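re: the backbone from monday

yeah here it is again, tokenized this time
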């Protein structure tokens, strides 16, 4: 069963398995799905931790919380939030500590799909990462 509420993500997972009878294509598609789910869950855990600590998901509320309510009890919370968001973003962007999955995943995917995943998807995630870190991190 494939849900229709996320058509782009669903179509990317289907697009990665477009060479049906190739074993490497199906293996790459399954790896892409499983590792993308793990990265999304780490990112979602960081975002939910932001909601728990700051009681808001608005960038200005998060910035206000970081500026004016830094007490000793919130340092560990902020470090965990930054850790989970950074690991989630690095995993989605395939940056150094979390880059080894892309080799296995892109090995069996059709070349135009690989180029699309490497350029468009990473560019969108990079823009989202910069927006989050620049709006919240600017003091």
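seq for it, each position gets an aa:
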């Amino acid at each position: 069963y494939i849900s229709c509420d996320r058509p782009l993500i669903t179509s990317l997972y289907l697009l990665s398995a477009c060479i049906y009878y190739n074993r490497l294509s199906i293996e790459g598609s399954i790896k892409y799905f499983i590792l993308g789910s793990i990265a999304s869950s780490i990112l979602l855990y960081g975002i939910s931790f932001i909601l728990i600590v700051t009681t808001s998901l608005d960038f200005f509320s998060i910035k206000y919380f970081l500026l004016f309510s830094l007490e000793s009890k919130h340092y560990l919370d902020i470090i965990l939030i930054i850790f989970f968001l950074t690991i989630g973003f690095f995993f989605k962007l395939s940056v150094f500590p979390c880059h080894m999955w892309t080799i296995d995943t892109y090995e069996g995917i059709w070349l135009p799909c690989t180029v699309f995943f490497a350029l468009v998807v990473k560019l969108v995630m990079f823009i989202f990462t910069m927006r989050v870190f620049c709006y919240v991190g600017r003091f």
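The CA atoms of residues 46 and 83 lie 8 Å apart. Confidence is low (pLDDT under 50) at residues 1-5.
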